[in-house]
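name: query_chain
kind: protein
chains: 1
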Amino acid sequence: MATSVRATGGSAPPADAAPGPRPRVQRPSGRSRRRSTLYRLDLKAAPYLLVAPFFLTFAAFGFFPLIYTGWLSLHRVELGGVPQWKGMENYSALATSEFFWNALANTFTIGVISTVPQLLMALGLAHLLNYKLRGRAFFRVAVLAPYATSIAAATLVFAQLFNTDYGLINTVLGWAGFGPVDWESSKWPAQIAISVIVTWRWTGYNALIYLAAMQAVSQDLYEAAVLDGASRWRQFLSVTIPSIRPTILFTVVVSTIGATQLFGEPMLFGGSVGISGGSGNQFQTLSLLMYEKGWVTGALGQASAIAWVMLLLLLLVGGLQALVSRWHRDHDRAPDRAPTRSRSRAGRTRTKAGS
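structure:
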């Protein structure tokens, strides 16, 4: 022991020496503990509190009505009455109802003859607005003006234009040598007139969406196309369209959803018989049929079943859009994988030759 003490240059404490007092550990006070707890709660719970209003609003006005509508679709419900369990009878009644299939067919045809011209015209307008034109800012605002117009105001104006007796459209057709067209009582003329209203209102909105997507396309692609001798039409087909394909798919899905839920234009266009889609249901859509079943005849169960059928149709459209997007992604990646496989095969061939 003495040797170790001398080697370290110190002195050993006496064996009977009493140990000194240990340092006291400062324990946090109650106030410090509360601050620490509040800090941890603020750090972990604050994000949930910030997003809670959205989820509460969605649960109250979105999720709960959806579930409650599904529950009503399984019952026979009259306005002011007690729900009676009917199971799938409302859905089976829709399967055999000629009014439902007529409304479904009208929704499809109006959607097609309004969505296809609308998106094609929007694509052309966006392509023109993408070039440097004089007053380009004015034209961009002008194409959005129909979207900012009230549905009621626009539909009432077009109803006057398509009036059978004194409308401007029939007057112009008379100048061209054609007879008057019954735009309200005939099936296809009425659907074309409603499609014109929808196309007029939504073309500019979709054009601005396409314009934003076109401005995000790299200019290097256009410069390479010019060096290859591509004309502007070829640049549009080979560069612009493939580059904005996801945006085109998005607008197709959104326009399809809007066409499925079409309500204001046909109701206001038909006037007093707008809810029933004309005197012969020639332009009654699914939304109009749902409204008629729920608030005219008072069959809330059947109206709820129609609402759920519309939801299933929209989910089907969304699923098809997802499949198409996935197919395009795989198709675009396929040319990139093929050279990789060929290079790997070439590498294995060289390795075998070297060995």
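note: The chain is about 75% helix and 0% strand.
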